[in-house]
Amino acid sequence: MDFEFTKEQRDIAKAAREFAEKEFTDRAEEFDRDETFDESIFKKAADLGFVGIFLDEEYGGPGFGMMEQCILHEEFAAVDLGIGVAVTSAAFGAEAIQMFGTEEQKRKYLPLVPTGEAIMGSAFTEPDAGSDLAAVSTSAVRDGDEWVLNGSKMFITNGTRADLLVCLVVTDPDNPKRHNRHSMVIVETDRPGFEANKLHGKLGIRASDTAEVALSDVRIPYSNLLGQEGSGFSVATSCFNLNRIGVAAQALGLMRACLAESLKYVKKRSVFGAPLSTYQATQMKLADMYTSIRAARSMVYEAAWRIDQGKTDHALVAATKAFCGQNAVRCADMALQLQGGYGYFADSKVSRIYRDAKITEIYEGTTEIEKMIVAKSVLA
User: In terms of domains, do 209 and 90 share one?
Assistant: First the structure.
C-alpha cells in the first residue's frame, strides 16, 4: 500500500496552496465580516483550472478523480473554508449531469463550468425536508413537452449566484414506494417564476452564498429531466458519496489550520514566566490535533482512492465524514482555548475557523445521519 501522492498530485496541492495563500489570505476577514465575495477570485480560479476538476476532458475539464478533488478541498480549506467553498461549489451539480445526463445535456451545460461561464448549484433541501430527503415536496407536473415547477428550497449553496440548479422534485406523488416519487431536473435560473433570496447571518463560511429559492410556475423543457423519471432520490444519494468525502477533506484542511495557528501562537507567548509551548496542557492539545489530522488524512484518502477505483465503500464514506467533521470542531475548540481571549474576538483567524468548522458536521449529511449509515452497515 502506497501512502505517497504522485508527482502530479503533489503539484496540484502546491498550486492550490499557493493560489489560496495569494488570493484568500488578505480578503478572508473582509468577506467573513461583510458576507460578501469577489467573483474575480472565482474567475482566476477557473482560469487556473481549479473549477470542475472532475469533469472529463471532452467536456472541458482535466478529468481528475476524487483523490485530486480532496487535495483541492483540503488545501483551500486550510487557508479559508468560506472562499474555498465559493470557488469549488461553482461546479456543484455538474457531477450529477456528468454521471446521469444525456450526451446532449453534457455537451450543452458541462463545458460552461470549468471556464467560469456558468455557476451551478444543487437544490435538494427544503424548509421541511433536510436529512429526510424523501420528504421533498417541490412538485414538477408535466404539461406537454414541459415541466411546471412549484415549491421552495432552503439553504441552497449558490442560490443567488447560480445560472443552473440541479433540482430534486416530486413527479410521481402517488407512487407507493416513497423513494421512487422523485426525479431530478435541470433548472436555468433566468426562467420566469424563479426567485432566490440570499440568507444572511450564517455562523460561518460567510463568503459562500446561501439562499432560499422559490419556484412559482417555473416552466422548463421536458428534456431537462436528469436521468430517468423516479430516479431522483438515487441520483441525489449517488452524488452524496462524492460530496461527503469533499466535505471531509475540507474538515481535514481546517484541522491543519488549527494546528498551524496554535503552533504560531504558543511559540510566541509566555505564561508565568515560561513559554506557553512548554506546558503539558498545551502539548496535549497539540498532540491531539496532530493525531486527528493523521487519522483523518488516512480515512479521507482511502475513501477517495476506493471511489476512484470504482469500489465505493458507503460505510467508510459516512464514517469519514462523521469523524472529520467532529474532529474539525474539536480541533477548533482546542485552538481557540489555547489563544484564550485573543482567539475569542471575531477578527482572529482561529475564531473564523471555529465558526466555519461546525458546517462540516451539518451539510451533505449531518453527523447523526452518517453514524446511522455506519451502524446500519455494521449491523448488516
Answer: no
| Residue 25, number of CB atoms within 10 A of its CB | 13
Residue reference for cell 477548533 = 332
Other CB atoms within a 10 A radius of the CB of residue 375 amount to 12
Per DSSP, the chain holds a count of helices (H) and strands (E) of 13, 10
In eight-state DSSP terms, residue 129 is: B
DSSP reduced 3-state for 159? coil
Contact 193, 219 (CB under 8 A): yes
Residue 170's nearest CA partner among 162, 179, 161 is 179
State the catalytic residue, choosing from 75, 126, 261, 364: 364
pLDDT score at 375: 98
Dihedral over alpha carbons 195, 85, 54, 20 (to 10 degrees): 140
pLDDT for residue 1: 67
All three cell numbers of 253: 484542511
User: What letter would DSSP give residue 170?
Assistant: E
* 135/167 same-domain check: yes
Query: Is 364 considered catalytic here?
Result: yes
Nearest to 191 by CA among 172, 160, 163, 226: 163
Helices (H), 167-279: 232-266
Total number of domains in the chain: 3
Q: In this predicted structure, what is the pLDDT of residue 359? A: 98
Q: Which CATH number characterizes residue 370's domain?
A: 1.20.140.10
List all residues 6 or more positions away from 365 whose beta carbon is below 8 Å from its beta carbon.
Answer: 131, 240, 244, 318, 321
Of residues 300, 304, 314, the one with CA closest to residue 380: 314
Q: Please tell me the distance from the alpha carbon of residue 365 to that of residue 362, in angstroms, as a whole number.
A: 6
pLDDT value, residue 347: 86
Domain that holds residue 220: 120-233
Give, for 215, the enclosing helix (H) or strand (E). Answer: strand 210-221
What does residue 260 show for φ and ψ, rounded to 5 degrees?
-60, -45
Is the domain of 346 the same as that of 248? yes
pLDDT < 50 positions in the chain: none
255/344 Cα distance (integer angstroms): 18
pLDDT at position 2: 83
Q: Are 373 and 318 in contact (CB under 8 A)?
A: yes
Q: State phi, psi for 172 to the nearest 5 degrees.
A: -140, 70
pLDDT of residue 115: 97
